[in-house]
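TICKET #2291
ISSUE: user wants both folds in one file
ATTACHMENT 1:
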Amino acid sequence: MPTITELRASYQSGDLSPSDAIRTLADTIESTDREIQAYISYDTDAALAEAAKADLSLPLGGVPVAIKDVINVKGQPCTCGSKFLDGKYTAPYDAGVIKKLRAAGAIPYGRANMDEFAMGSSTENSAIQTTRNPWDTSRIPGGSSGGSAAVIAANEAIAALGSDTGGSIRQPAALCGCVGLKPTYGRVSRYGLVAFASSLDQIGPMTQTVEDAALLLQAISGHDAHDSTCVKEAVPDFNSFVGQDIKGIKIGLPKEYFAEGLDPEVKSTVEAAITQLESLGAEPVEISLPHTEYAIATYYIIATAEASTNLARFDAVRYGHRSENAANLIDQYRRSREEGFGEEVKRRIILGTYVLSSGYYDAYYLQAQKVRTLIRKDFTEAFEKVDLIASPVTPTPAFKIGEKSDDPMAMYLADIYTISANLAGICGISVPCGFTRTDDGKQLPVGLQLLGKPFAEGDLIKAGHAYEKSTDWQKTAS
């Protein structure tokens, strides 16, 4: 598929129309997605109607963008990958990011599969279907934005939106060989994003190139009065960072992110990428993020506590699944939630309710918030010495479907290098940096993670683009 930049050039030259692009995507989805199962739904007729009216003078005029099925698009279903909403809810409004996409001329096209309510790292927790990694269909695409990453890797989308609560943009981007950017908390509106953990969630772009990520980020950034956590921070011209020199930029290498548990091939691939950045003029500096070992425990207390509160709204009274066998109102709540929610969602609701309960709040939730402050302080101190931080995105390449389904802790550890950025509220990007090989010779993508100071997405774009243009990884197709 063409990139956003290439597609826009084709529109301007008259070689292609937005309607042509939608039809090409529809044909590809029809022929490919039976195996990949990355889309939950898509409405080609509605997209063609929008394409016919596309304003090509706008920054994203006529560009189709796949949407993770946790973001509301007016008139389209929003299942959140859950039986609770599947076939039972149609969005009555556009999310803040969708309004901004439309204002930039983009066309929302297709609902991408995901782990139920964004709770998972493999997209196996979707109640709708299991999405497969286009590089090896016996393996997971990552999660929870696995569908958004897979549609790009399978050439079923030009670009996509995902959401990142603990790595859910960066991790699937790394495992599927595309670019995924998590903005700083507050940079992008969360209005219309079905909440998992409100202090951690953030919407961001998933694209074929860093330049495309800059274009999409430009469109969706900025204050939204409907979201009190969306800050009034000036939005720079992210496109201006594309092509900038990175000579003299200091890149921190946290020793905790290159320690035991990291796959040797992933480690060597990421280290080679850092060497490449050094050849472009970057200066590597060893740093420490000493509270990294507490990040997983801290995250799974705070995130589940917030999930327990947020998912209380799914009570079968106003919308969603309603049990047909309830004896009374309380029984209706219990049966509907039991029938509608999957095992992982139930697990997190139970854990979150427990840590918020009387007698345990101080021992768990309050303590976790204190550790979160220490983790944020680690990054603040590190960024006094360096401009960016580089690390792996995941400890291993994509694993086999079903390999970790019975071991939740092993699944949680897949996010060890991404979770801290959400706890600290900083920005991060995953850029393809190479491959490992399976025993049967298949290539599995590896991602380089770059983390930046709050609201320093421009630095991520600058360094990510410089690296991308000095290699050929992004040109290798699945």
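ATTACHMENT 2:
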Amino acid sequence: MSEIIDQPQNIREGEELDKEKLNNFFQHSLGTTNEKLEIAQFPSGFSNLTYLIKYGENEWVLRRPPFGANIKSAHDMGREFKVLNALSKVGIKVPKPLLFSMDEKILGSPFYVMERKKGIILRNKAPKGIDLNPELMKKVSQSAIQNLASLHQVDVKKSGLQKLGKPQGYVERQVKGWINRYFKAETDHIPQMNELADWMQANQPEKSNTSFIHNDFKYDNLVLNPKNLNEVEAILDWEMATVGDPLMDLGTSLAYWSEPNDPDFLKPFNLTWLPGNLNRQEVVDYYSSLTRSDCSNINFYYVFGSFKVGVIAQQIFARYQKGLTKDSRFAGLIHLVKACAKNGVKSLEQGRISQLY
């Protein structure tokens, strides 16, 4: 659902936080007493959990890993906290990080608290009372790509971000890593996922560039200014951010960047299929004009992105099947895996990233 970010919901079953322990943490960290603590939950994607914290007169956002996840790898809260600290100092639009705790006795996992950025997040339908007309959506799509390009142009050495990744051999590691993750989480035999895995291993680019990359950049990770929707107030969800090839980041964004003829399971992530949005090829052309990047081999990066998004869905679906999460939204994620595989194979057959069905 698209909505104003100030509208959290009731906490989902099985994702409650220990209010007493959290209250004790704030009192100890801030030296306060007798402040009222209220907790609600923001509508989230399929990864880290996000809560609204009202503590006295303060309003913050708390992030913690999903229950049942491996918190030592893809859900490293301490690392995400460091990323926000570094990016906030170089002008990238992120919420200011405030508090971090690695004490698992409080909430069962490490967590951090950050500034609350109010605005509008576009999910799978238009917010009430807002006309997402073609002219507006073109500006929103351009603004999104401008912010992605700005991130990729940050000097990783001067910013200190270079310490948060290993750019040497990044593409090869990512291809191998995501293929391994897929087969470890495989629940259904999907021939097209196997085809993409084989193709990527045989067609890796020889050269790559280095930037700081988000790795999950899409509309529902952008907070928009409610008074000017084509202005990005903040970029959220930095859990997979690292130093690596910027075109791998672009490829992941393209995989989320749905078009009108794409399978319906791809459309909840971005309202990019609405009239006025740049299509995938136009996104690449615009990004290239902003960064002066050589995007002639973009098909590889799009195939990688499609496979990667499919693996993310597969991992969550496998967790759901094992009973490690009770979120009913995850029950149909196997169809998203198949949709990603279909798009990736289609791009190979047609030699283009904007699909014609």
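RESOLUTION: both attachments delivered.
EXTRA DETAIL ON ATTACHMENT 2: The chain has eleven helices and eleven strands.
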